[in-house]
């Protein structure tokens, strides 16, 4: 029933390429959609604007959300997802460069499933992405 | 005031009366004695010639002295010869007495005077004087004295009221003003001037003093306001600066690392996807790029950790330094593949922030391991001792050491005494350690000899004084 495995919301296309590459390496990247900002992500998730043909019920298995984005940031997207009955159980993982305590605290208070700091080191980064994909897409079960 | 004047007046009266009483008695006795002598002298002839008519005449002359109530002449045998007044019964006259001089009886003063012709006593004169007159006089004196006292009291009363108005009232007013100022802290109050005398001057001086105080209080108040304003300004500036610094470090942590991730990531993609198409030189070049991107990442992380430390609160708990050090050593062993001999002595407990002190131990021990790595037999010694109420911990190694000449650079941020080529590092570690120890109210210092080794000490206050009240 999922037409999308992973929804990646990332404003930095270079980072997005690295994430998608890692997911693909682990055979998790067949149904990955990359959106460049929070506003478009909200349109997609709630079937609005150019995504109005989509059904809200076709929930992605996992949303990988960048924290710092122009216009609508990761925390705002997270808040909107958690506020809606139809989307509140979608696993959301925040990925960010920041180790700032206040970001972590706020993310958890909004109900994030995981908070991952993107390491500079590519090896560590790849491992983080593949571990995340493995767990949330292959292992984790969400309410239908 | 009334009492004082009354007492003085009374005492004066009593003294006066006493004096008057004695002097009056003396004068009366003297007077009677003189009278006696004159009459006795006049009576000589009458007695000598036994002329009763002459004697009666002489005595009758006493009627001129109204206070003489009785007089008589005795002949030389002591028989009554003549008497005054003539109608007085004979029993009224006492028998002749050999007593001489004058004596006070209850109501009278009486006495005997011998009548002499040459050495021969012809008879004796008796005189009795009424001293009622003296008491009359005393009564008059008493009345006058009483009147004087009463008048004095009235006078004193009015005088004291007048004086109170001119002395007490201004003083009371001054005291009330002073009290009002003390209670209300209102220095604009002024004492009212009531007269042009010394009290008036005092009031003026008091008011001038108040004036000075008011001016100075006002100045102090203004100064305080200015001070508070400038403190508020500084605080606001500091807050702004802090916020800017915070947002700076926030964006550094976000934005500076993203490009590094791309540099590292894409270099690796290049190596993975096109590695076989590059020669050794090309691959080495990419590895240098990767290494430096990673180093830059470490630098940013360290710098952020250092700046974050300023904001972090120090939460002091009792720390088991033996356990803490053992944990740190375990964690570091994974990083350093070469075995070093670790000599860890029993360590004293201390009050400190758990994660911060762990950071201190981690940095010092990893430094010791890093700089002794190239030795044949690396030895790291960790110990502690008590000194001046502080617990001192040290980490000693037999590594590269350092030149004491550059000691002042040891704890500076980004200051290094060894090149990255020799030993890896960003130059933040010891600065971080220094800052943590300082925030604990402690001290850090080091000793080093090039190629022999280095010892780093840090002392933390034991705060025994602070812990005593919590125990009781």
Short descriptors:
heterodimer, A: about 140 residues, alpha/beta, Rossmann fold, five-stranded parallel beta sheet, 5 strands, about 40% helix, B: about 475 residues, alpha+beta, Beta-Lactamase, Heat Shock Protein 90, five-stranded antiparallel beta sheet, five-stranded mixed beta sheet, 12 strands
General description of the model:
- The complex is a heterodimer of chains A (144) and B (472).
- With 144 residues, chain A is of the alpha/beta class.
- Chain A has one domain: Rossmann fold (3-Layer(aba) Sandwich).
- Chain A contains five helices and five strands, in the order βαβαβαβαβα.
- In chain A, strands 2-1-3-4-5 form a five-stranded parallel sheet, sandwiched between helices.
- In chain A, helix 1 packs across helix 5.
- Chain A is globular and about 40 Å long.
- The relative contact order of chain A is 0.18.
- The model of chain A has no long low-confidence stretch (mean pLDDT 84).
- Chain B is an alpha+beta fold and 472 residues long.
- Chain B has three domains: 2-143, Beta-Lactamase; 196-311, no CATH class; 313-471, Heat Shock Protein 90.
- Chain B is 57% helix and 18% strand.
- Chain B has nine helices and twelve strands.
- Chain B has helices at residues 2-48, 52-60, 132-184, 198-274, 280-311, 321-335, 354-372, 429-439, 464-471; strands at residues 68-75, 80-84, 101-104, 108-117, 120-130, 316-319, 341-344, 350-353, 379-387, 390-397, 443-449, 453-461.
- In chain B, the strands form three sheets. In chain B, strands 2-1-5-4-3 form a five-stranded antiparallel sheet. In chain B, strands 7-9-10-12-11 form a five-stranded mixed sheet, with helices on one face. In chain B, strands 6-8 form a two-stranded antiparallel sheet.
- In chain B, strand 1 and strand 2 (80-84) form a beta hairpin.
- The two termini of chain B are 62 Å apart.
- The model of chain B is unreliable at 465-472 (pLDDT under 50).
């Amino acid at each position: 029933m999922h037409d999308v495995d992973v929804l990646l919301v990332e404003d930095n296309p270079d980072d997005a390429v690295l994430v998608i590459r890692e997911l693909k390496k682990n055979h998790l990247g067949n149904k990955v959609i990359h959106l460049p900002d929070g506003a478009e992500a909200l349109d997609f998730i709630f079937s609005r604007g150019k995504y109005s043909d989509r059904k809200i019920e076709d929930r992605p298995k996992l949303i990988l959300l960048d924290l710092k984005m122009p216009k609508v940031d990761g925390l705002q997207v997270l808040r909107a997802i958690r506020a809606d009955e139809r989307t509140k159980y979608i696993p959301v993982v925040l990925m960010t460069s920041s180790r700032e305590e206040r970001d972590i605290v706020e993310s958890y208070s909004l109900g994030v499933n995981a908070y991952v700091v993107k390491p500079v080191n590519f090896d560590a980064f790849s491992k983080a992405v593949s571990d995340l994909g493995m767990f949330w897409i292959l292992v984790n079960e969400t309410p239908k | 005031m009334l009492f004082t004047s009354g007492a003085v007046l009374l005492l004066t009266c009593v003294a006066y009366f006493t004096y008057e009483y004695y002097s009056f008695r003396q004068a009366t006795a003297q007077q009677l004695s003189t009278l006696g002598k004159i009459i006795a002298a006049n009576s000589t002839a009458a007695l000598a010639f036994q002329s009763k008519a002459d004697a009666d005449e002489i005595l009758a002359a006493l009627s001129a002295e109204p206070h003489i109530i009785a007089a008589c002449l005795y002949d030389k045998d002591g028989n009554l010869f003549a008497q005054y007044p003539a109608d007085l019964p004979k029993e009224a006259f006492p028998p002749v007495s050999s007593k001489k001089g004058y004596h006070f009886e209850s109501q009278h003063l009486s006495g005997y005077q011998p009548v002499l012709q040459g050495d021969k006593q012809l008879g004796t004169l008796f005189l009795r004087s009424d001293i009622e007159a003296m008491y009359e006089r005393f009564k008059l004196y008493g009345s006058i004295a009483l009147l004087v006292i009463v008048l004095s009291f009235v006078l004193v009363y009015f005088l004291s009221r007048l004086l109170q108005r001119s002395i007490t009232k201004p003083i009371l007013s001054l005291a009330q003003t002073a009290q009002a100022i003390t209670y209300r802290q209102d220095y604009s109050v002024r004492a009212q001037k009531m007269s042009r005398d010394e009290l008036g001057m005092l009031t003026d001086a008091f008011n001038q003093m108040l004036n000075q105080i008011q001016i100075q209080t006002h100045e102090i108040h203004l100064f305080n306001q200015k001070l508070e304003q400038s403190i508020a300004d500084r605080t606001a500036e500091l807050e702004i600066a802090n916020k800017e610094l915070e947002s700076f470090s926030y964006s550094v942590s976000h934005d500076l690392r993203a490009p590094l991730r791309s540099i590292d990531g894409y270099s690796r993609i290049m190596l993975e996807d096109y590695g076989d198409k590059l020669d050794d030189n090309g691959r080495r070049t990419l590895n240098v790029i990767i290494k430096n991107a990673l180093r830059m990442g470490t630098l940013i992380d360290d710098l952020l950790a250092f700046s974050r430390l300023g904001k972090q609160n120090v939460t002091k708990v009792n720390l088991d330094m033996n356990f803490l050090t053992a944990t740190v050593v375990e964690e570091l062993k994974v990083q350093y593949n070469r075995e070093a001999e670790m000599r860890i002595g029993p360590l004293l407990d201390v009050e400190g922030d758990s994660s911060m002190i762990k950071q201190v131990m981690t940095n010092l021990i990893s430094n010791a391991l890093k700089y002794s790595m190239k030795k044949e037999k690396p030895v790291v010694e960790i110990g502690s001792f008590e000194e001046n109420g502080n617990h001192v911990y040290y980490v000693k190694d037999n590594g590269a050491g350092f030149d004491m000449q550059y000691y002042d650079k040891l704890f500076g941020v980004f200051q290094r005494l060894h090149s990255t080529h020799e030993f890896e590092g960003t130059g933040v570690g010891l600065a971080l350690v220094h800052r943590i120890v300082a925030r604990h109210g402690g001290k850090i210092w080091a000793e080093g000899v090039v190629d022999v080794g280095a010892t780093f000490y840090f002392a933390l206050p034991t705060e025994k004084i602070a812990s005593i009240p919590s125990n009781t």
